[in-house]
Amino acid sequence: MVESAIQDYRVTAEPYYLPVAREVELFEAAHSARLPVILKGPTGCGKTRFVEHMAWRLERPLITVACHEDLSSTDLVGRFLLEGEETIWHDGPLTSAVRNGAICYLDEVVEARKDTVVIIHPLTDHRRRLPIEKRGTILEAPADFMLVVSYNPGYQSILKDLKQSTRQRFVAIEFDYPPPEMEAEIVSREGGVDEGTARDLVLIGQKVRNLRGHGLEEGVSTRLLIYAAQLIALGIPPVDAAEVAMCSPITDDRELQRSIREIITTVI
Amino acid sequence: METYRTQILESSTAIASISLRTALEFLRAAPAAVQVLQPAELRAWADMGRRLAMSDYESAASFFAAGVEPLRDVTEELRPALFALCARQIVLSTSVARETFESLPGILKEIDVETSRAILDIATEIARRSAKHSTEFINSSVAVSRFLREFESAPVTEAALALATAFATRAGGIAADAWSSLPASLNTLNAADATRLLTRTNDFLERGGGAALQVLLSGGEILRRAPEIFDDWIDLLWVVAAHGNASLIAFVRSSPRFLRLLNEGSSRSDAVELSRRVLALTKEIAAVDGEAALACFRSSSRALRSVSIEQFEAWARRGLSSGRTDTRARRSYFSLETRGSYEALHSGSAGLALDSIQHLLRLYVEALTGREVDVAPLAAVPDEARIGDGRTIHLPSLVNEFGDEELDFRLYKVLAAHGAGQIEFGTYERGGILDAAHAAISQSFDVDVRDAFAAPDEMLVEQAQKHSDAKNTDYREVLRLFPLAQLARRIFGTLENGRIDRRLRHAYRGLRRDLDLIRDHLSRRRPQIIELPALLVPFELLFQVTILGGARDDARQYYGQIVSELETIVSDYLGNAEATVADTLIATGRVYDLFQSVVPADDSIQQVEVPEEQSEENDESAATDRLKQQHAQSMPQRRDARELFNAWNDPSPDGEPDELAGAEAWSESESPEQVLAEGEVAYNYDEWDRELTDHRLGWCRVIEKRVKQGDRAFVDDTKERHKGVISSIRYQFQLMKPENLTRVTN
User: Fold this and answer.
1) C-alpha torsion angle, residues B718, B720, B725, B726 (rounded to 10)
2) Can you give the pLDDT at residue B660?
3) pLDDT tens, residue by residue, B285-310
4) Deepest of A164, B190, B398, B560, by most Cβ within 10 A of its Cβ?
5) Does A255 contact B508 at a Cβ distance shorter than 8 Å?
6) Nearest one of B447, B446, B357, B450 to B399, comparing CA atoms
7) Average pLDDT over residues B275-287
8) Residue in A with minimal Cα distance to B357
């Protein structure tokens, strides 16, 4: 990847992030100590935004890979591709990050196949190197390189879980939905609504989160609260906005949907 | 003079044959009597004394010694009637006759001569059957004639006297009750309506005195509330009367209540129109079956709360055309007791059953509270949310308050939110500030005890120990400190519901719409404060101030001072958006003290009792009793606060405050329900009636009790309560024989 291309991965404007605890400090320390970091937390609680914010803070490029079942080690490391008469090597996102001292963020790493995940093992211990088997080379990671993965413990199952051998290579920072006051501030700022509306949305979110275990795997995320706020800011009636953003997306169970609707009309 | 001498000698001879001393007294009194009485009157007077002497010499002697000076004030034209009345009474009762003789001059002084003559004639007629009623008639005459004079209408007085005469001739003693009830019956009526009522009542005398008296009493109330329907009502009465006096009297007695209930929540013109249509419908039914008509009439106000008049009419006509000849089945249909009848009425709006939304409400409550809760069915729709145990929320098994599923759901939602609010806003918290409330309330009662009764040391030590031991207390333990724990629980329940209501409104903006809807619904259904028995008034005031957001105008008008004090307490303690259960407890103490401070500390406190429905059969005595009740509850303009709060101070430790008008107000039931003890919940079940081939709705009431292991008190209480039917139940069990077993003889 050429220098101009990696510049595209730099975060130039400060992404809004409101620290909830000591996560910024911990992340910076991990970066200094060249430790890989795993971010654990429910969906939509701000993990990705946090990584973006830290990339901006540390002035490092951020290469994000959304992991999925078909993601192979080749997709991460790179491959030879035919270009006219030649076969040319193309770095994968992980190789690019290592080569450029960027932050590589593997989002929802648990979704990737286990044999794919193993490729990151040499990068996450004291060796900090990436073997590129197809080229027969080993890439040493520079000091600025940092590997960050995220996963959602709520989705754990026997089939989809991180092996201990992978887990124990990371320091973990736990995330959860922010406390109400902070979450309201975030929703207000990101959604462009007044504080009262934001507080109402957060209250709905809190109440719906109480339904985890009653057919809801996860509660309403902060991200959905922000979506609702954005719709409200565009003139959609609050109850309608809350319904489309916070009710239908999270469940197909009609009774559950009705109970969430009642929560919405209770608050708004 | 010669005539007088002859009269005196003849009379004294006759008296002397019974008692020489009495004859002597007569001779001593005769010269003065001659100055007042005519010869014939002297003879009547002497004869009266002679008859007295036949039963009691002393009484006769004192009778003559008292003389006849008071008769000087009685005009001569009235005296013969006076002596005729006394002569008639003395045949039945000498003491009553003497009492009448002594009191009449004073009474007749207050009444004009024409009316007096008529009254004496009527009293004489009554005295043919009952001396006592004759005197009662006379005694009430001053007040009645004064009341009649206020009409300034001769026709009213004439009609009243004609009615009294007819009563006396046809029914005897009950004429006294009818006469004394006139002020209450004709109160606030104009002369034309009063004459109309008196004349119509006179017509009903052919059905007996009891029936006519009931018409007089209820007719007055109907004329006051809705004079437009009076004639329709009378026409209906004649149709019902064809089925016998029992139906007629029961019907007449039900009428005022019917109008009261129908007036609630609708404008006057709507209520009159509704009443007309119900009366017309009832007349149709009465032409076929008097009892069914009565049942339909009684059901109407309840039914019309949830269905339209068109639905009601369709339901009634369906009942008539069903072809059922069984009176019991027809009556059950029109009483709305059976499921078939209920469904026929509500076809199109059957209400909302808890079963259908139980899971949804459970999710709703768990979302609000973040805790696992159970939702349990309750027998009836409560006015207030029940203070539960923090784990189970009790909701009515069926709601059909609005005739609209969406609105009925909103009622469920509000009740569920209240239940959730109790959990969320700390009703069941323990320790902390509750310990402080415990100490404060405990101390206040200790001071009272020390001051008032100089309590023994043991009691003070015990109280002090209570203070020091108060750790991790909850609201129940604090309530136990109150000397009248039932009263405290009742006050606490209402205040705590008020606190929860305020906190819900503050925390959940959207819920205010639903809370307002239910508040309006409840407000519309509140009774007029003046119509409530004194027993229920304090709770109603507290309910209005706390739950309905303020007292209604009529409550403020009659009980302004109490309302003001309650409002201050509620504002001081529950007004804060962050009020806790400890605030409710302190407020409970204040309201409790308020009640205590206005109760006199002597033995003259009269317990106020709720009048119960009377038996329909015993018409005449029922009419008399009802009359007495009417006098007792005669339209107070501004009640004494002491009377108001006497009801709270029931010294009996038994019973549950719920019975006042509590969470399960069984207002429609005809027999008193067994009261619930603390922590008990009642469930109503439908029961299959084999003969009706239908379910009777809510017919079986089951109370869930928690009995301590090894405690026989429950068994003993149950045996005691049902001792009358135990042997019958045992016999029924003994009659059951296993069908597939036969006795084998060797």
Assistant:
1) 70
2) 29
3) 888 888 888 888 888 888 887 777 88
4) B398
5) no
6) B357
7) 89
8) A255
Q: How far is A234 from chain B (nearest CA, A)?
A: 21
Q: Which two tokens stand for residue A64?
A: 């994000």
> How many whole angstroms separate alpha carbon B367 and alpha carbon A214?
10
Return the amino acid letter for B603: D
- Which residues of chain A are within 8 Å of residue B359 when distances are taken between CB atoms? 255
Cα first-last separation, chain B: 110
> Chain A: residue nearest B512 by CA?
A266
Q: Is A237 on the interface with B (CB under 8 A)?
A: no
Chain A residues inside the 8 Å CB shell of B355: none
What's the confidence (pLDDT) of residue B740? 66
- How confident is the model at residue A158, as a pLDDT? 52
Give yes or no for residue A74 having a pLDDT over 70: yes
Region B362-376: mean pLDDT is 86
Model pTM above 0.90: no
Instruction: Report chain B's C-alpha Rg in angstroms.
Output: 33
| Contact between chains at A266 and B363 (C-beta distance less than 8 A) | no
Chain B neighbors of A266, CB-CB under 8 A: 368, 413, 417, 508, 510-511, 514
In this prediction, residues B699-727 reach a mean pLDDT of 82
For residue B364, the chain A residues in CB contact (below 8 A) are 259, 262-263
Write the single-letter amino acid at A195: E
* Type and span of the H or E element at B62: helix B57-66
List of chain A residues whose C-beta atoms are within 8 Å of the C-beta of residue B367: 207-208, 210-211, 259-260, 263
Q: Cβ separation of A268 and B510 shorter than 8 Å?
A: yes
pLDDT single digits (tens) B244-268: 888 888 889 888 888 777 666 667 7
Residue A256: its chain B contacts at CB < 8 A? Answer: 363
Find the DSSP H helices in chain A. Answer: 3-7, 23-32, 47-58, 73-77, 93-100, 114-117, 164-167, 180-191, 195-209, 222-233, 238-246, 254-267
Hey, are the CB atoms on B360 and A267 less than 8 Å from each other?
no
| β-pair partners for B393 | B375
Residue B366, pLDDT above cutoff 60: yes
Q: Write out the DSSP string of B188-199.
A: T--HHHHHHHHH
Among A57, A177, A162, residue whose Cα is nearest residue A106 = A162
How many of the other CB atoms lie within 10 Å of CB of A237?
11
Give tens-digit pLDDT for B571-604. Answer: 888 888 888 888 888 888 888 887 766 543 333 3
* Residue-wise pLDDT tens digits, A111-161: 888 778 888 888 888 888 898 888 889 989 998 899 999 988 766 555 567
What distance in Å separates residue A59's CA from the closest CA in chain B?
42
Per-residue pLDDT at B176 exceeds 50: yes
Largest CA distance in chain A: 67
Instruction: Work out the average pLDDT over B67-75.
Output: 84
CA distance A31 to B228: 92
* C-beta of residue B273 within 8 angstroms of C-beta of residue B316: no
Question: Is A200 in contact with B370 (Cβ distance < 8 A)?
Answer: no
The structure tokens 């400060």 sit at: A14
Quote the minimal CA–CA distance from B519 to chain A in Å. Answer: 16
Per-residue pLDDT reduced to its tens digit, B506-521: 889 899 999 998 888 8
CA distance B213 to B612: 19
What type of residue sits at position A169?
R
Helices (H), B187-303: 191-204, 209-225, 230-241, 245-263, 268-286, 290-303
Stretch 412-431 of chain B: residues touching chain A, C-beta under 8 Å:
413, 417
Pick from B596, B548, B305: which is nearest to B448 by CA? Answer: B596
pLDDT at B745 over 60: yes
Kindly indicate whether the ipTM for this predicted assembly is greater than 0.90, answering yes or no: no
